[in-house]
Amino acid sequence: xxxxxxxxxxxxxxxIHVFDKSQFDPKAIRNCGQIFLDxxxxxxxxxxxxxxxxxxxxxxxxLYHFFDLQTDYNEIKAELCHFxxxxxxxxxxxxxxxxxxxxxxxxxxxxxxxxxxxxRFSKTLAKIDFSNLEKYTEKDFQNMGCGYRSPYLVTAxxxxxxxxxxxLKKLKNDDLRRELLRISGVGRKVADxxxxxxxxxxxxxxxxxxxxxxxxxxxxxxxxxxxAGVAQQYVFYALINPQKTN
DNA sequence: GGCCAGGCGCGGA
DNA sequence: TCCGCGCATGGC
Length: 246
Fold this sequence. Notes:
Elements: E1 8-12, E2 15-18, H1 26-31, E3 41-45, E4 50-54, H2 60-66, H3 73-80, H4 84-92, H5 103-113, H6 118-126, H7 138-143, H8 150-160, H9 165-168, H10 173-180, H11 188-197, H12 209-216, H13 228-240
Antiparallel strand pairs: 1-2, 2-4, 3-4
Helix pairs in contact: 4-13, 5-8, 5-11, 10-11
The chain binds a DNA duplex (13 and 12 nucleotides) through α5, α6, α11 and α12.
């Protein structure tokens, strides 16, 4: 992995320094609706940089990849800014980055997210031990508040045993989506979230109830091209976390 | 108290 | 293939 750029630098096995604050906002990255679990690290802000300290479960090189620090999001923003409707959302969420999430937690997270609200299902997800998903029964998931999604989750976890992330990575979008749609509880929207957030398919823009409203208000994500998924995140973040107007 | 939430599976046409 | 419906449950 090439880790040489002006955005961030690996200092040692547990430490990354992020220098370009214009494209790294930990709160926005955490709250833009792409992830609902805690980061496996601590992030400390200093005047001129952020310091990322890994926890025991990971290391600096993995975190460099997790935060997609090899990618210059200012270039992505510059490309998307050609669309007038994106300028305000980009300016609002300018420090958003698309993470490389672990496949299975991502699948489970977005199955639970269906027809649910972020505050509620975040609490549910915090109760789940993702290192040992197979121990859970339908009743366990019900007790954690997963409701009618509980049987889907048990089936999905069983299906995930037979799925190889590295093999799936080789598939083109349409084929990957078709495979993901076979997972219980995964429909088009959840499949697209998995593609964007676990497979980093930045051209895939999931359409949920909020984005449907954005489309009614003039956004056309099919125009946004190879970074349509990133555009979707800026728009989604602006919608769920509206700018304070003084 | 009613509507909504990062929708999905299912049955019927 | 395309409706329309039911669905658990808390937040607001």
